[in-house]
Amino acid sequence: MIENIEQKTNNELVAIIGGTVIGTPSGLNAQQAQAELNKRLINSMDNLNKSTTDYSRRLLDLNVVLFLVAIAQLIVSIKAASKTTSGWVWGTVLALYSIYFIISRIVKDRTKKS
């Protein structure tokens, strides 16, 4: 008399939950349906967590690549704007130090909040 709850759709499970009284065979079906819905919700949340983690990793990788391209562009533009070799070397050093200083402040602020 107990139905196979795992084969039902979400809408059928909700209908079973809404139309039963606990303590009867239909009540047992309702409890099983509710448990199955909870299991599906947990599985969906786990899958979402995995995909979100993968997406975050990809975004981080893209940010690192973008950062490296920006540094290369900065070095090339400083070299093109400078007339002497020492000018572009010192300009590059100054630009990289500025980037380091900004990043270290951001990291320091984030570790304070944690």
Question: Which whole number gives the mean pLDDT?
Answer: 79
Instruction: Look at the helices and sheets and give the structural class.
Output: mainly alpha
How many strand elements?
0
Helix content range of the residues, please?
Answer: over 70%
Approximately what portion of the residues adopt beta-strand conformation?
under 5%
Write down the secondary-structure element order.
HHH
Summarize the structure in short:
The chain has 3 helices and no strands.
Walk me through this protein's architecture.
The chain has 114 residues and is an all-alpha fold. It has a domain at 1-65. The chain is built from three helices and no strands. The protein has helices at 10-18, 25-81, 85-113. α1 (10-18) crosses α2 and α2 (25-81) runs antiparallel to α3 (85-113). The radius of gyration is 29 Å and the shape is rod-shaped. 5% of the residues are buried. The model has no long low-confidence stretch (mean pLDDT 79).
